[in-house]
Design a protein that fits this description.
Layout lengths: L1 H16 L11 H16 L20 H18 L5 H10 L18 H16 L12 H13 L24 E3 H18 L2 H17 L2 E2 L5 E2 L2 E3 L14 H17 L4 H18 E2 L3 E2 L17 H15 L4 H18 L24 H15 L40 H19 L8
Length: 456
């Protein structure tokens, strides 16, 4: 079996390289494979969801729910690019345990804090499972493509034309801080998911939503073409005027729009407009997010050493999307692989800390462990190494017409048995409104009773 061969390769490579560093030669498939194993193993060292009293699919606090979804996305890609299936059972169990009662990644134990961006990250993980032919669940379980479609449909139902002429809010429920804010990551994840669904299924409805989301983000000014295609964090409702902008830039915002644009370029058979958008965002990423156009970093917080537990993972998602761009928009491949190679090698050198000697740090441009550690650091390091390795797995991402096997359901997440998706709705779903109202009552009762809120 391929898995057995990979295991043998990893064992042999570990002996040659030693156990106290993740030394990577980005030109070597075996070196990248070993680096992927070491960094992904570091992710799984944080996972205890299968222990008694823990919740399958969730990494422990301070990791938020969305970051757990992102971590499983990394595990999906690890299997796709290495063939090593040692963590597949945990990955599948986790992705299915968190689907919620309606198979749409709205689990009841998360709805008091779940935002649109959080929701979208789990949908993207399901999309990656479909695109990378991750083993399909049993026939009586929800399928990867259908889960991605359910997430898309639920997000589309929250599109808000009444404020800022469109767009998704950051938060789903009114009682959450951030409900009056429309941010680039929520809309970027939705755009990315729509573009990928369009390519995978060939369904124009998804492409139309991708175009609509892109146009809104540009028109509102969150993508600023006059400032080297900078993508700002977000704006406040009701008007989202520029004086309400938070102009901070994060790597993952660029990543989601860059990846989505590349998928749209592929879906449209090389449309010149989408080619231009893709190239512009790639150049923007190189300008803003690579030290001396060499090593990926998070300029908003790394130089000041202020990155929080979430933010240390952000640059990993840009790595993933750069990888996708190189695959579905091949004109970017040379530029992308050069950036990924130097970043993967630097990330490997940062993975030389901790008691195991291979714990990953945050500031890769220091070319050594910087003393930082955590789930986010491990995700970012694993993602950039896997992104560099992925060029040795050219068959992914697949589509329904190029070997994809995941079963879909265009009406998933809508409670609609017809073949027509509810994605064209522009009002909040009845389900979200009802759930939001119920939770508001429950929270209010908790306050009146003087008791604290215990998440389910």
């Amino acid at each position: 079996m391929l898995s057995t061969l990979v295991t043998s390769l990893l064992a042999a490579t570990s002996v040659l390289t030693g156990v106290n560093a993740v030394t990577i030669d980005a030109s070597s498939q075996s070196s990248l494979t070993n680096g992927s194993y070491q960094t992904v193993k570091g992710i799984m060292n944080y996972y205890h969801g299968d222990d008694i009293g823990e919740t399958p699919g969730l990494f422990p606090a301070p990791a938020y729910w969305w970051e757990s979804g992102a971590a499983w996305n990394t595990l999906i890609e690890y299997y796709a690019y290495t063939g090593d299936d040692r963590w597949n059972n945990q990955t599948m169990k986790s992705l299915l345990f968190q689907v919620g009662p309606d198979d749409d990644y709205m689990p009841l134990n998360q709805t008091t804090s779940e935002g649109n961006d959080d929701h979208g990250f789990w949908g993207i993980a399901a999309m990656s499972a479909a695109e990378n032919n991750f083993p399909n669940p049993a026939s009586d379980e929800p399928q990867w493509l259908a889960l991605a479609q359910a997430t898309f449909n639920r997000m589309a139902s929250r599109w808000d034309d009444e404020n800022c002429n469109g767009g998704l809010r950051w938060q789903i429920f009114q009682f959450n801080n951030g409900y009056k804010y429309k941010n680039s990551i929520s809309n970027g994840v939705f755009f990315n998911l729509a573009a990928r669904l369009a390519r995978y299924t060939g369904n124009q409805t998804y492409a139309d939503w991708a175009q609509k989301t892109w146009d809104w983000t540009v028109d509102i000014g969150l993508i600023n073409k006059t400032n080297h295609w900078a993508i700002y964090d977000g704006a406040n409702v009701p008007n989202c005027t520029t004086d309400t902008f938070d102009t901070i830039q994060w790597t993952y915002n660029n990543g989601m729009y860059l990846g989505g644009a590349a998928f749209m370029y592929n879906y449209t058979n090389g449309n010149s407009t989408w080619k231009s958008h893709t190239q512009s965002l790639l150049d923007s990423a190189q300008l803003f997010f690579f030290v001396n156009s060499t090593v990926l970093y998070e300029p908003a917080c790394e130089p000041s050493a202020t990155c929080d537990y979430d933010q240390t993972s952000f640059k990993g998602y840009l790595s993933q999307q750069l990888n996708y761009a190189a695959k579905v928009a091949p004109f970017t491949a040379d530029q992308v692989h050069t950036l990924l190679a130097s970043s993967a090698e630097a990330a490997g050198l940062s993975c030389s800390g901790g008691t195991d000697g291979i714990t990953c740090g945050n500031r890769w441009y220091e070319y050594t462990w910087d003393g930082d550690y955590g789930l986010g650091e491990q995700i970012s390091a694993a993602d950039v190494v896997l992104a560099s390795l992925s060029r040795f797995a050219p068959e992914y991402p697949v589509t329904a017409n190029t070997g994809g096997t995941s079963a879909g359901d265009p009406s998933a997440g809508t409670n609609d048995d017809s073949s027509t998706s509810a994605a064209t709705s522009t009002t909040a779903s009845t389900k979200d409104k009802a759930l939001g109202g119920l939770l508001t009552v429950v929270l209010s009762l908790g306050v009146l009773a003087g008791g604290g809120w215990l998440a389910i």
